[in-house]
Write a structure and sequence with these properties.
This protein has one domain: Ribosomal protein L30/S12 (60s Ribosomal Protein L30, Chain: A, 2-Layer Sandwich). The C terminus is likely disordered. The chain has a 4-stranded mixed beta sheet, sandwiched between helices. It is an alpha+beta fold. It starts with a helix and ends in a 9-residue tail after the last helix. The radius of gyration is 12 Å and the shape is globular.
Length: 107
């Protein structure tokens, strides 16, 4: 299994475990509340969403992964198209980081 497939699989597992926040509002709340360990943003997110999420992640020092399309991210979690997720569990965040698709280390 390649790294891309592993990442999507881990997102699905995190969803089933209840360790994933989905959507702008929930993700921003998770970042502000210190719950977000990693944020995943779709490559085809709008410029406005990309800037908003990137700025929040930089301000709160949360690793950001821009990866996959909105349809791929949605499909990996069994939902319709999704643009942004916050991983709220450090174990899942570390698993995703081990896929070596992001340079930042996750604590």
């Amino acid at each position: 299994m390649d790294n891309k497939a592993k990442l999507f699989s881990y997102l699905g597992l995190a969803t089933r475990a209840g360790k994933l926040a989905s959507g702008d509002g929930a993700v921003l709340d998770a970042i502000r509340g210190g719950e977000a360990k990693l944020v995943v943003l779709a490559e085809d997110a709008s410029d406005n969403t990309r800037k908003k999420i990137t700025d929040k992640c930089n301000h709160y020092d949360v690793p950001l992964l821009v990866f996959g399309s909105r349809s791929e991210l949605g499909a990996s979690t069994g939902k319709e198209e999704r643009v942004v997720f916050a991983v709220t569990d450090s174990g899942f965040a570390k698993l995703i980081a081990r896929c070596q698709v992001i340079p930042a280390e996750v604590e």
